[in-house]
Design brief:
The protein has 451 residues and is α+β, with helices and mostly antiparallel strands. It has 20 helices and eight strands.
């Protein structure tokens, strides 16, 4: 079973020089993707609430609040900036059989801590690599969804590991930080069941903040429960429900198992959305003639966004829409796209999509569940028209899936698209160039471009 000592040793052992060129490339893609999504989310209602709360608490600090021309402490900057990267539901996802966390939830906390200590770009890549590896291993070996815990229960531990790396904590400080983070901050799954609300997109920011705060406490001498995992009533017994092992790779290659979203949609919807858009375009489907849409999918998709944890046909808000397969499939078929525009309140409530989404049925298929557990993301769609004409399409991945990864150029194009409304061309290019060559830049230089 893992111990806080094992995690601390791993954090200390990760060195930039030991990372492969491919791993470094993937980590840089994740940074560019995350900061782009974050800068595009500045006017979202939830991020505005977080910004107001953070600035009410603090008027200054060593860390940039992205897009606000303001600063705060590392913990509050982690809260604010992680809320930005998560708000649009356009972030990356790690694909494990029983859990799908979002490792990009760690990027902003590592950058905030790096900015506070004037970390180098290579320091940042080490910290982000650490966080991706820890989050991936926990998700793969100790899924907590079926135990009633939210996946950000993993994030608080991975964020503490990544933040602790760039802050330069020693072994005992890391053990204490991990113990504090993992003991005190275990989030409930109710966040993503039943009626969905805006906390869904902010819970990970709270976890990132708590991970950073645990590191700062440990750095100043606070002792924590270093028997976090194995102790009586500890993480293994209460949260995981059993002992488990992790195999932490000093090369941080879990980043290769992380997908990048092509569409503004929940992770498990990506293949289905891509497939129904392709079908609608290839067959020139007239939405007004559609009688029904049926999706055969895997267990996780049915459970989370297909009706397994609450009816997904009642959709009136963005938070509900981006966790509703009926809405996403209906909107994608009608509009032939799934971008931020599909989550405007007026678009969500329009009669065409509200009517069509009620024809959507979602069913779990054992064969597709098995395929998902072997690394695919399958979707089988049947569209029936009012005259009886039936169209079918099936896929097992999407552009951005680990089997079809986005290139640097693809990620750069996504960055340009999402940031065009908020950033000028010169600033966009400066961010791209800095992240592309992060090895020769530093945390403060990157953060300055995000003010």
């Amino acid at each position: 079973m893992p111990t806080t000592g094992e995690l601390a040793d791993f954090v200390l052992d990760v060195q930039y020089e030991a990372l492969s060129d491919d791993a470094i490339e993937e980590l840089k893609k994740r940074v560019l993707d995350s900061v782009g999504i974050g800068m595009a989310a500045l006017e979202e209602d939830a991020t505005e609430v977080v910004a107001e709360t953070v600035t009410d608490l603090e008027s200054a600090g060593p860390c940039t609040l992205w897009g606000r021309d303001a600063t705060a402490s590392p913990a509050q900057a982690a809260m604010h900036n992680t809320a930005l990267t998560r708000s649009l539901d356009f972030m990356d996802s790690f694909l494990a059989p029983g859990e799908t966390p979002h490792p990009s939830d760690n990027v902003a906390s590592v950058l905030a801590c790096g900015e506070s200590v004037d970390a180098s770009g290579t320091d940042l890549l080490e910290g982000i690599g650490v966080a991706y590896e820890v989050q991936g291993e926990l998700a793969w070996n100790a899924p907590v969804r079926d135990r009633g815990f939210d996946h950000v229960t993993h994030t608080v531990i991975s964020a503490a590991c990544g933040a602790g790396k760039v802050l330069g904590l020693d072994r005992e400080q890391l053990r204490n930080a991990i113990g504090i983070a993992g003991t005190a901050h275990n989030a409930l799954r109710v966040t993503r069941t039943g009626g969905i609300n805006e906390w869904k997109g902010v819970a990970s920011a709270n976890a990132a903040r708590n991970g950073v705060y645990a590191c700062l406490l440990a750095q100043n001498g606070m002792e924590g429960p270093v028997n976090l995992f194995e102790g009586q009533k500890g993480w293994n017994q209460v949260v995981a429900g059993a002992d488990f092992d992790v195999d932490l790779d000093r090369g941080c290659e879990r980043v290769f198992d992380t997908m990048t979203k092509r569409y503004v949609a929940e992770t498990y919807a990506q293949s289905a959305v891509e497939a129904i858009i392709g079908l609608a375009e290839s067959e020139s489907v007239d939405p007004d003639t559609v009688a029904s849409i049926h999706l055969d999918t895997f267990h996780g998709a049915k459970l989370i966004i297909g009706g397994g944890e609450g009816d997904r046909h009642e959709v009136t808000t963005k938070a509900q829409a981006d966790h509703s397969l009926p809405y996403m499939l209906a909107a994608a078929l009608i509009d032939r796209e799934m971008t931020r525009a599909q989550y405007d309140r007026e678009r969500i409530q329009r009669p065409d999509v509200q009517s069509l989404l009620r024809t959507v049925t979602v069913e779990e298929n054992e064969r597709l569940t098995e395929a998902f557990e072997h690394g695919k993301m399958p979707a089988r769609i049947t569209v029936e028209l009012e005259d009886g004409t039936t169209y079918r399409t099936e896929t097992d991945a999407f552009e951005g899936h680990p089997t079809r990864p986005m290139s640097w150029e693809d990620v750069e194009a996504k960055f340009a698209t999402v940031t065009e409304p908020t950033l000028g061309a010169q600033r966009r290019q400066a961010i791209v160039d800095t992240v592309r060559n992060l090895d020769t830049h530093d945390a403060r230089g990157l953060a300055a471009l995000l003010e």
